[in-house]
Amino acid sequence: MHCPRCDKPMAPTHLDEVEAHQCPQCEGHWLEGEDLRLLESTVNVRLFEWRTLPSEELQARELACPRCPPRQVMKKVRSERDRHVLLDACERCHGVWLDGGELRAIQEMGVAAALVDAVRFIMNN
């Protein structure tokens, strides 16, 4: 699977019990829809080094879902807990892309429940 931001191959990784994929270049994370429920209770902030959020201009770029061909464009969802975080969620597979630094920002503002909120928003619209 390739990074939707920089098109580099992503490597499987674990966030405690949650499986994810991480881009070695931009350090973003891809989370499958079914893993998001686990994320709220298992992700630990200490797993991540400090990262700054990407610019809003970079976050606003349209991204294709790395899981759903052909070029399924992901929907932008602004985090309710941190208005500086703009998540990318796929309406088809319900996966979520987090740019480098976004997961930590969400956790600091109210744990990873913001991810679950984003996916619920996508699924209900």
Automatic annotation (TrEMBL):
It comes from the Bacteria. Pfam families: Zn_ribbon_TFIIB. InterPro entries: TF_Znf. Residues 2-37, 65-106 form the Transcription factor zinc-finger domain. This is Transcription factor zinc-finger domain-containing protein. It comes from Cystobacter velatus.
